[in-house]
Design goal:
This protein has 534 residues and is of the alpha/beta class. The protein has three domains: 40-168, Rossmann fold (3-Layer(aba) Sandwich), CATH 3.40.50; 195-426, ANL, N-terminal domain (Rossmann fold, 3-Layer(aba) Sandwich); 429-527, GMP Synthetase, Chain A, domain 3 (2-Layer Sandwich). 30% of the residues lie in helices and 25% in strands. The protein contains 17 helices and 26 strands. The strands form six sheets. A nine-stranded mixed beta sheet has the order 2-1-11-10-12-13-14-15-16, with helices on both faces. The protein is globular. It starts with a helix and ends in a 7-residue tail after the last helix.
Length: 534
């Protein structure tokens, strides 16, 4: 039977993920799309899995525009569910598996998802919450059987894998990413096919990702940063290895890079700390690595320097947020090859790069007037890859998109070449004795101390100064140092008002699943019952 492959390629509209999924299945049917545990899934097989889910959802009355939620650790099923939303016209909501019961109840109801796909660790809590979930009509158990839940694996036995009849356009929403809720209740950033594919095009072109690359996925799939990197590889026909781990395992990660001959990995700074701390790091063959992409939280200069010395200048940085696509700017690998240059030239490593292609960024004051180079203001952004809106929050959307520019809440400045330097989050700024202190500047100095492994700087209440600079520090294994020594170290490198006035030593800093340090949790014990006014 003749197969009109070029005609088939035009089945789904250009600018939609349905087109990408089907294209990869037709052109690279046997190529590896995903690796998860023992499963090695080709592009053809993934397309068939997605089709089966679409048919199953339609059979229970789920239609275009309906929400489908997934709560699970990184797994193949999470990719299937998002793929079904991409191709079937549904709206996917990946939920944070670390949320507490009350938080889950709120966010699932807020999403208005009608179907929920549940990982084995969350069956009990979802079973308990089920009577309170206003919109959920059906639940699927991703692994194993459970009373009251459909069995996920049965989908692929009971439903066909042929192409479904669907109508999708590039302007249809297909996914919602939920903010961390650091300033209140989480909000959902809604993305259309066009907006997310625009961001993937930018990343693939700027970073040089192609179908011969293989990416190790250790960041959570519910987070926009890891998700965007992951699906960019898929879009160009590359491979993704999904690490089956709830928390970061540096040894297992390096072993996977070695065994799979992976070319890429996306990390956060704390994960680089973990890898560099491995006493036997040199036993792993990591010569296949072409890029180490870092994002999600600021990379201290000293830590980055150590990373470049060990892995070479193969690092690249992306800066963005849940609402921005995410990539606002990129610091490419070529700018990391400066360790043999002057301190002035090395300073570029503390920047987050220049604005991405097809992204406009400005630094503005409180009146939204543009600031000249080296003056600190808020970073505002325009692009075709930023979110469409906040889900069901028109007032919040209007506020954050004031004047047609996304207001990031990040404070920074730019130099004469357009490189952006992030100073800190607007809300994290400390005002002590009337002076503004940006925690990141102090943290950079702390990371330069030979005994410091990790550090977080916050403002805490003080009768004299209103707020004082307080540092929470994790020491490297085997090191001992006093708080006074660390304070003196900072005073020798900073204006005295910027140096910490108090030091707290802890065994570990609280982090979210992406590895970002949760300053709100650190602050809470100091500000409980008080109103922090900045």
């Amino acid at each position: 039977m003749e197969r009109f492959i070029l005609k088939e390629l035009s089945r789904y509209p250009i600018g939609t993920y349905g087109d990408i999924i089907y294209r990869n299945a037709l052109l690279y049917p046997d190529n590896l799309a995903f690796v998860y545990k023992e499963d090695r899934v080709s592009f053809l097989k993934f397309n068939e899995r997605v089709n089966g889910i679409i048919h199953a959802l339609k059979s229970i009355g789920i239609k275009k525009g309906d929400g489908i939620g997934v709560i699970a650790w990184n797994c193949l099923a999470a990719c299937d569910v998002v793929g079904a939303a991409m191709k079937g016209g549904f709206i996917a909501s990946p939920f944070n598996p670390r949320l507490q019961e009350a938080e889950l109840e709120y966010i699932i109801n807020y999403s208005e998802a009608r179907v929920l796909f549940v990982g084995p660790e969350f069956l009990e809590v979802i079973e308990k919450l089920r009577p309170k979930l206003k919109y959920i009509s059906h639940c699927f158990s991703i692994e194993g059987e459970r009373d009251g839940f459909y069995e996920y694996d049965s989908i692929f036995k009971d439903f066909p894998s042929y192409e479904p009849e669907v109508e999708i356009t590039e302007d249809d929403p297909f996914i919602i990413f939920y903010t961390s809720g650091t300033t209140g209740l989480p909000r959902g950033a809604v993305y259309t096919h066009y907006r997310k594919l625009e961001e993937s095009r930018t990343k693939a072109l700027t970073v040089g990702i192609n179908r011969f690359n293989k990416h190790v996925m250790i960041l959570p799939l519910f987070h926009i940063g890891g998700w965007s990197h992951f699906w960019t590889f898929f879009c160009v026909g590359g491979s993704n290895i999904i690490m089956a781990q709830r928390s970061f395992d540096p040894a297992a990660t390096l072993k996977t890079i070695q065994e799979e001959r992976a070319t890429d990995i996306h990390i956060v700074p704390t994960q680089l700390v973990g890898m560099l701390a491995l006493p036997d790091i040199d036993r792993y063959d990591l010569t296949s690595l072409k890029r180490i992409w870092y994002a999600a939280s600021p990379m201290p200069f000293e830590l980055l320097r150590r990373g470049i010395e060990r892995f070479g200048p193969i690092f690249a940085q992306g800066y963005g947020q849940s609402e921005s696509g995410p990539d606002i700017s990129i610091l490419k690998e070529e700018y990391h090859n400066v360790l043999d240059k002057s301190p002035e030239e090395q300073k570029i490593l503390t920047s987050c790069g220049q604005p991405c292609l097809w992204v406009h960024a400005r630094i503005v004051d409180e009146k939204n007037d543009d600031l000249p180079p080296f003056e600190v203001g808020e970073i505002v952004v325009q692009s075709k890859s930023i979110m469409k809106e906040y889900w069901k929050r028109p007032e919040d959307t209007e506020m954050v998109m004031s004047g047609g520019w996304l207001h990031t809440g990040d404070m920074g400045y730019y130099d004469e070449r357009g490189f952006i330097y992030i100073v800190d989050r607007k809300k994290d700024m400390i005002i002590t004795g009337g002076e503004n202190v940006y925690p990141r500047e102090v943290e950079e100095v702390l990371y330069g101390h030979p005994a410091v492994s990790e550090a977080a700087v916050i403002g805490v209440p003080d009768e004299k100064w209103v707020e004082r600079v307080h540092a929470v520090v994790v020491l490297k294994e085997g090191f001992k140092v006093s708080g006074d020594e660390i304070i003196d170290f900072c005073k020798s490198r900073l204006a005295r008002y910027k140096a910490p006035r108090s030091i707290e030593f802890v065994e570990a800093l609280p982090k979210n699943p992406q590895g970002k340090i949760l300053k709100r949790e650190i602050r809470d014990k100091y500000w409980k019952g008080k109103e922090r006014k900045i």
